[in-house]
Amino acid sequence: MKDFLQYLAEPIALRTLWACAVIGFVDGYVSALVVLRRSSLQIGAVSCALLPGIAVGILLFGLGQWSALAGAVVAGLLVGLSSLFVARSTVLHHDAALSIIHSAAFALGYVILVRLGLQQRVDDWLFGNIMSMSFADLCIAYGIGATALLGLTLFQRPLLLWLFDARTATSLGLPTRGISYAVYALIVMALVSSLQAVGALLTLGLLVAPGGIMRLLSNRASTMFWGGGCIGAGCSVLAFFISYPLNLHLGATIILLLGVVFCVAWFFGKRK
User: Fold this and answer.
1) Calpha distance 146→127 (Å, rounded)
2) 271 occurs within a structural domain
3) Which of 30, 61, 139, 170 makes an SS bond possible with 190, Cβ 3.0 to 4.6 Å?
4) Crossing angle for the helix pair 119-127 and 50-61, to the nearest 10 degrees
5) How many domains, the chain?
6) Strand locations in the chain, DSSP E?
7) Whether the Cβ atoms of residue 44 and residue 102 lie closer than 8 Å to each other
8) CB of 194 closer than 8 Å to CB of 204
9) Which residues touch 10 (CB under 8 Å, ≥6 apart)?
10) Residue 256 is part of a domain; what is its CATH number?
11) What is the Cα–Cα distance from 257 to 66, expressed in whole angstroms?
């Protein structure tokens, strides 16, 4: 306990705690949109596609903060949009096209990073290492979070209309295709912001579980958004205080806590 109190006095501990709160709240807030959009499995495939983007970014521009993040964003957008193009231009279903493209891209990214001698960094990108986040990383998370929260809050009404009744939204003159692309881009940005915290393989849990928990407890969309944010932040902060004394991986502890809360919500939540 004494070691933990000494750790809390260090700047890295405060930075990690802030990262848990900010990333947890933003992803929890956005998770309501993912759940209402019913695109959880698609987002899971896209999250794994971030790894090849990181690999290509490092291969082209060297190992740097911005090269890895920019590569991840571009890869997430390209994999999602290319799978949609394949599905629309062939008889193959969108889910099948996305699975094939994202698994091939993931394998390519892993091969490139191993060849570059970045095996240790691969583990961090797959499973996260939130304690290694620098002040610049935290500023990026703040920027993405502020953009996501502002956009979803200001345009929540047209977004909900598009989610639940796309035909009516089109008849009212809303740019439904533009909204679809903007929502997808926003979700990819949220994925990238949590990449260093929980990694490509675990980020799906942080971007789906809070919204799923609130869906079991409430039918109100606004409650799902803000409640999801509070659950994401709460579980992330609690994981910070649990993981260090027990010597557990912080990113995995966050997802485990969300799983426990989900089981409790399922037991006490709404039934069909």
Assistant:
1) 25
2) no
3) 30
4) 140
5) 1
6) none
7) no
8) no
9) none
10) 1.10.3470.10
11) 31
| Residue-range definition of the domain harbouring residue 165 | 2-261
Residue found under tokens 């070691």: 3
This prediction has a pTM of: 0.82
**Closest to 132 (Cα-Cα) out of 68, 73, 77:** 68
If we measure between CA atoms, which residue out of 272, 77, 82 comes closest to residue 185? 77
What distance in Å separates the CA atoms of residue 50 and residue 53, rounded to the nearest whole number? 5
Is residue 271 within 8 A of residue 223, CB to CB? The reply is: no
Tokens 């958004």: give the residue: 225
The rounded distance, in Å, linking the Cα atoms of 261 and 235 is: 9
Express each pLDDT in 146-171 by its tens digit.
Answer: 888 888 888 878 887 877 777 777 77
Q: What is the residue whose two structure tokens read 């290319």?
A: 82
Average model confidence (pLDDT) for the chain?
79
R_g of the chain computed on alpha carbons: 19
Closest CA to 206 of 53, 34, 16: 34
Residue 267 included in any domain: no
What count of residues does the chain have? 272
3-state helix, strand, coil in the chain (%, to 5): 85, 0, 15
> Which amino acid makes up residue 7?
Y
In a domain, 270, yes or no: no
The amino acid at 63: L
Helices (H) and strands (E) in the chain, counts: 14, 0
Q: What is the pLDDT of residues 37-92, one digit of tens each?
A: 776 667 776 777 777 777 777 777 776 666 777 777 777 777 666 666 665 666 55
Phi-psi region of 220 (alpha: psi -120 to 50; beta: other; left: phi over 0): beta
What is the structure's pLDDT at 52? 77
- Assigned domain for 199 exists: yes
